[in-house]
Amino acid sequence: MAFSSSITTIPQTLNFTSSNKLSLSSSTTSFHLSFPSFQSNSFKTITTTSPHITRAHAPPSPVTTTAASSFHGLCYVVGDNIDTDQIIPAEHLTLVPSNPDEYQKLGSFALIGLPDSYSVRFVESGETKTKYSIIIGGANFGCGSSREHAPVALGASGAAAVVAESYARIFFRNSVATGEVYPLESETRLCEECRTGDVVTVELEENRLINHTTGKEYQLKPIGDAGPVIEAGGIFAYARKTGMIPTR
Amino acid sequence: MASSLVPSTSFFHTKKDLSLSAFSSPSSQRCHKHASKRITCSVAAPQQTQRQPSSTGSVKTAMTMTEKIMAKASEKGHVTPGDNIWVDVDVLMTHDVCGPGSIGIFKKEFGQDAKVWDREKVVIIPDHYIFTSDERANRNVDILRDFCHEQDIKYFYDIKDLSNFKVNPDYKGVCHIALAQEGHCRPGEVLLGTDSHTCTAGAFGQFATGIGNTDAGFVLGAGKLLLKVPPTLRFVMDGEMPNYLLAKDLILQIIGEISVAGATYKSMEFVGSTVESLNMEERMTLCNMVVEAGGKNGVIPPDSITYKYLEGKTSVPYEPVYSDQQARFLSEYRFDVSKLEPLVAKPHSPDNRALARECKDVKINRVYIGSCTGGKTEDFMAAAKVFLASGKKVKVPTFLVPATQKVWMDVYSLPVPGSGGKTCSQIFEEAGCDTPASPSCGACLGGPKDTYARMNEPQVCVSTTNRNFPGRMGHREGEIYLASPYTAAASALTGYVTDPREFLQ
Ligand code: SF4
């Protein structure tokens, strides 16, 4: 992970849009994150299905109506050390993400490896998309293998961001490189503060997570080193911008 | 995390490098937090953000091994942990699971007609899902083959006839072992692979780490990658290794001590008289599992044992490097190996450490010996040694999956010391084990439903592999005890998790 030593906070102009993500049927692993400046409508549109989410779009807190980039929707809460086998079990790794159908399928299997103690499934059987747009995890999220299928499956399922206490290195790196999910770190153990189904908003500029169900707010860590690369639009765009590889 | 599980940790202590105390902390997440906090702090104190650390004091040039390799590969005189540098890649490895995706990204980004940056530096090894009728799995190997032909890739270890691996002379098996056996692991070089256990090659004093498909797609075209220089944790292991311990016990000890996130973003360097006494395969076991502690890479200083192993395997000149005396380590851990006991990692985490003897009442259903961690020639030799010493038969199904074709041949041809000339395969047969299977990743990561030895039932398995997260070997409710080949063989003989001293002393 981590690409620049000049870590300050997120550039103020950094807005997360997901236009390419949601039209993903045509695209591959979509590392073309676009981060246009000062775009006002930069919600990750979680308008996919559920009525909950529609409701959640009119949240109590006024901050979500600012121009800041934010993600908003229901959260799905997991514990520590959620490894890549739980995110996408190895039997599904034959799916190649650059193939649109297989990308869809990967999304439908997201987090299917969680043990039965998780009584609520992340993606309900028969569905291809999740109704949870934000995953909240504990420490060391995404540990295990280097499979890029892990962030891709989460992104393909329709999740916008993971907010975890910490990440395994390769998962973080893959999330940034592919732009599939936004890997954010929390200051506190949010997995003990939030419950699956809570309505939450993540505000990138403010580094803040608001749980509308409980009415509490939490501080997130700045995205830091990954900023310049994400801002450029992933590793390829970054390399082109800096003259490392020729522009096409 | 798991450290409370082991009663005696008196042989273990941490020496903190005071000059780096801002970074030193018992938990890696904490370390990481500190690292980022340091910078975040500078946001709070803007007057300091512009100042380079080196301008505040004397310039340090001492570097760790990992720093030196990365400095060399980026043509810099000096690098410091935290630097983001473009590193020239000496070898890029990919396999059937991540290769097709990486190739897709390479073509999309560099163009359909693009050529890889160096046809001799790309190594492609089908190994994960080979002996299966799963169509997509088979198709993925076809994608690799087409790409290798199109690009004239020099090192492609193909398999065409799945019915009998032996008629595929090019086919090797598990990538990390094949890389070593085919001479692609060389001291001082940079090896990137689309597999988290690429760190195995650190045993050769190489910087080796796992990357994702997008990064690999980039490397295929550009031959370089932006990497962050990790700080190094040093593990000093001294003392004579008791005859009932293997490198697997050492790394389970370390992971249990520092936790599955204890080395996140960091390099782990293994030194000391015990490490010097280990053969290459045992050193590979040590480095193989650094990723289970979250590590970016592991390294062992190359020595005569390394050079001997490399003899005849590579004609590429290489330049070993070593940590400077004054090099700065984030922290240093010391172990007296002679006091360690055989260990296991209980379900469902590699840091859930316990003494094997503490688990003697855990009834098991099966034993699995295989993978890049525990499926090498020395691993089968070790298991055979236990079976030979006991003279008994196994009480549970015991599955043997040699990592590579070369290991398979060794199992069938090398005499086991003290056996009067018997091979491992003969000893396994006498002990009632399953016949050694075709070399591949096998059930180490579950795989398609028809994978040999996959856990399709919620059973309890003692395994020489590296991960025991839920579902890793197939069934989500399966329980995996990670152990050394000695402990695995001893457990097979009793049907319970068993300390190998019951048979070896
Ligand atoms: S043997 Fe297991 S850990 Fe090793 S490369 Fe294969 S799947 Fe990965």
From TrEMBL, chain A:
Mainly localized where? plastid
Kindly state which reaction or reactions the protein catalyses. Answer: (2R,3S)-3-isopropylmalate = (2S)-2-isopropylmalate
Enzyme type, top EC level: lyase
Read off the InterPro entries from this record.
Answer: Aconitase/3IPM_dehydase_swvl, AconitaseA/IPMdHydase_ssu_swvl, IPMI_Swivel, LeuD, LeuD_type2/HacB/DmdB
Q: What is its EC number?
A: 4.2.1.33
Oligomer and partners: Heterodimer of the large LEUC/IIL1 subunit and the small LEUD (SSU1, SSU2 or SSU3) subunits.
Name of the protein in question: 3-isopropylmalate dehydratase
From TrEMBL, chain B:
In its UniProt record, which GO terms are filed under biological process?
A: L-leucine biosynthetic process
Q: Which organism is it from?
A: Medicago truncatula (Barrel medic)
Recorded protein name is: 3-isopropylmalate dehydratase, large subunit
Boundaries of each Aconitase/3-isopropylmalate dehydratase large subunit alpha/beta/alpha domain copy?
81-354, 357-495
Q: Does the keyword Cytoplasm apply?
A: no
Query: What EC number(s) is this enzyme filed under?
Result: 4.2.1.33
Q: Which residues form a coiled coil?
A: none
List the InterPro entries hit by this protein, alphabetically: Acnase/IPM_dHydase_lsu_aba_1/3, Acoase/IPM_deHydtase_lsu_aba, Aconitase_4Fe-4S_dom, Homoacnase/IPMdehydase_lsu, IPM_dehydratase_rel_enz, IPMI_cat
The UniProt keywords, alphabetically, are: 4Fe-4S, Iron, Iron-sulfur, Lyase, Metal-binding
Name a GO molecular-function annotation.
3-isopropylmalate dehydratase activity
Indicate the transmembrane segments per the record: none
